Amino acid sequence: MQLIAADIENAMTNASWIRRMFEAGNDLRRTRGADQVFDFSLGNPDVPPPAKAREVLHALADSVVKPCGLGYMPNAGLPAFREALAQKLSHEQEVPLEGKHILATVGAAGALVAFFRAVLEPGDEVLVPAPYFVEYGFYCGHFGGKLRPVPMQGPDFALDPAALLAQVTDRTRVVLLNSPNNPTGAIYSQAALQHLASAVNTLNDARKRPIYLLFDEPYRVFAFDGANVPPVLPLSPFSVVLGSFSKSLSLAGERVGYVAVNPALEGVETLLAALTLTNRTLGYVNAPILGQKLALGLLHEQVDLTIYDARRKAMATVLSQAGLRFSLPRGAFYFFPEAPGGDDVAFCQCLMKHGVIAVPGRGFGMPGYIRLCCAVDLSIITRSAEAFKAAMAEFSAP
Amino acid sequence: MQLIAADIENAMTNASWIRRMFEAGNDLRRTRGADQVFDFSLGNPDVPPPAKAREVLHALADSVVKPCGLGYMPNAGLPAFREALAQKLSHEQEVPLEGKHILATVGAAGALVAFFRAVLEPGDEVLVPAPYFVEYGFYCGHFGGKLRPVPMQGPDFALDPAALLAQVTDRTRVVLLNSPNNPTGAIYSQAALQHLASAVNTLNDARKRPIYLLFDEPYRVFAFDGANVPPVLPLSPFSVVLGSFSKSLSLAGERVGYVAVNPALEGVETLLAALTLTNRTLGYVNAPILGQKLALGLLHEQVDLTIYDARRKAMATVLSQAGLRFSLPRGAFYFFPEAPGGDDVAFCQCLMKHGVIAVPGRGFGMPGYIRLCCAVDLSIITRSAEAFKAAMAEFSAP
Question: Does the reported pTM lie above 0.95?
């Protein structure tokens, strides 16, 4: 019996590498003991939410148990949340935004899916620098969109506008950019973004169906060594920015994100109305009310980034001492070092023998590298040093 | 410039009747004054959540501000929530369910969309008794599914299995049933459900792609006059049930629902894995964590149903005294009376002149009737009596 759709069956047999390695880690914990496994596979933000979350939640407990206190709201989100977020984003993006330009969403993922549903026709193409977050393919694929990864050059994987522009076709509808980047930690420069946006703006002058520049920014506050994450809305009227509080407030499980549309876009109301419709009819209906109220109460807070920075520095030391080649990430909380010799799957298998769980780069559209997620306790990183060294010694042996 | 997809643009120009009437109500409040408007358009459950919600939320405030306290979880939901829900549903559905048979979802809407994505191929048909909740068309349409409404007979709109079965084709993939029903308040009988399920079971013996019986049950606890809402999982291995806590706990804005798959289905693990994948990749990722924890704490509570019952009785009196023809609903919180003479839009316009906001039946695929939602304070219902009488006098005048 065919219980499920053919393309879903196909997707199930190609389980994501992240998930596969995470499960391998669970197996390994049983055989080696949990303290001898160094699991850098999954990115579940483990730094506690800001302490103020407790106070905000207690206040909510006292205020919401009343008629419609947890009820429906406008599909675009709580007006107070959208207004406050508009103020914050106006500052961040250096463009004056009002609440009406913001849609509260079920995380950044919900924002991406709602956006793709609103703008893609079947057969439309979404260009994305590779390596890339693999779920993107699903998000546009549900509606007949085709993800077109465009390889960037390692080891730093800086944005290469010319490489992206060379792949533009009549069917290109979106260029999707994630900076600070998962999995590379790269932060795209103002100059590269400007180059790309100028070219897209010129292309759009002659197009009936414009190319959008879609910026996925859940890691915006994760910028280290004084790195600057440039604002993106000023780059183009066709730039749209989305983000979430999953990482910045460690609220990943509550699913609160947003999408902000550029007031400079001619027809901005049409795009906003379309996003409101797709957000509603994709079954999200509205972003979770407790999450919106919690994020509103914590809008000017963030998790303790010094914890992430200490991990980043420790991981850099561990990898350097073991002899891996990598570019020090200035953003997000991932490392994307080279697999010695280029076989990322073989190298991950070797690492696993020594208790280290990493994800092969091919899981992000870039074989020859591995991804390490540093959303784990500092002690796991420091204790992994010998395991990395042993794996490198074994893997590099003739 | 074409900013959005053509089918979304088309959907936007056909705004839902519910939304249109709700907005007309807002205009009317400005001109007549809020106390002279009797708005029965939208179904935002307004009875407060159970008092225990406050205690549960305070306990959460003390427990979640810790590493991963609000973090990701398995995409299918919190194990403790799924286990507890399985126990509750085992009792309700008279089929032994385990946590693994349950998926926590972003409301019932999220469950419907995840299910349709998991099983529909483009061109597949979803049969639904009319009148029906109009969002169903979007939920399956996103993936090329076609909603096929099958008219039931008023005034009580009981389930007519023969009428549904007469519309089955090779492309029929789902029969979607909502009982207690929005908009009619009908509760489908055990006998009618059994008739339908037996026929579908027989059809499925000869089909490679089975027909699912999908039961949308957000109103299950809203049953009055001692009415029984029969369990549906025992009817067929192909029956799937979904629901939410939006109405039963007045948590509509927090978006917590579920889908439960029949353990008797051969290949049940495949369907569950597909639902877990679609729930993840549609951008829901997981149902909101605060909502799941709140619903877990309130699993054996429900809103005060005597409030809804009193409204139902009051509305019946108001409508009877005004001379409208209707079947007394035994479930949910809607009335679906006839529009005198058959023109539902004209009748709604006449009602509006007298301050009453109702939704034309054509907004639910059934012209000739109007829908009245009783999720409003009792006083609004009783105070609307004269307005209904005046509208009837005017509308029935030669």
Answer: yes
